[in-house]
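Weekly modeling sync, notes
Attendees: S.R. (lead), two postdocs, one rotation student

Agenda item 3: backlog of single-chain predictions. S.R. asked that every request posted to the team notebook include the full sequence so nobody has to chase files. The rotation student volunteered to paste the first one in as an example of the format we agreed on. Action items at the bottom.

Example entry:
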Amino acid sequence: MSDEPPTPPATLPTEIVNTLNESDPERLRDVASYAEALAEHKEREARLEESADQDEVEQRPDVLPDDVPAKATITIKEINDNRYYYWQWREGDTVTSKYKGPVNPDD
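Predicted structure, as returned to the notebook:
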């Protein structure tokens, strides 16, 4: 091991480098552990989001009614033991649905 301190990555902001340089070894190990766990968490979230986006794209048909936005997906709702397709999308904090048709049991 070198007697010189390690060189921080050029992408690390100066204020973070300064804070780390002023920290004791125990705090540095805590930061390293937390940073690794946070990186894994964010990578997992990104993979899940990417997977969900792909699922939505696969469910989205080529032709949408004029009053249904492109971001809408098809969902199935069961009402009185009957299943129906609905277009569904989010408008701010509200989820909006529009009837599409009955679910064909042969599909």
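Discussion: group reviewed the output briefly. The helical segments are 14-21, 25-59.
Action items: rotation student to repeat for the remaining queue; S.R. to check formatting next week.
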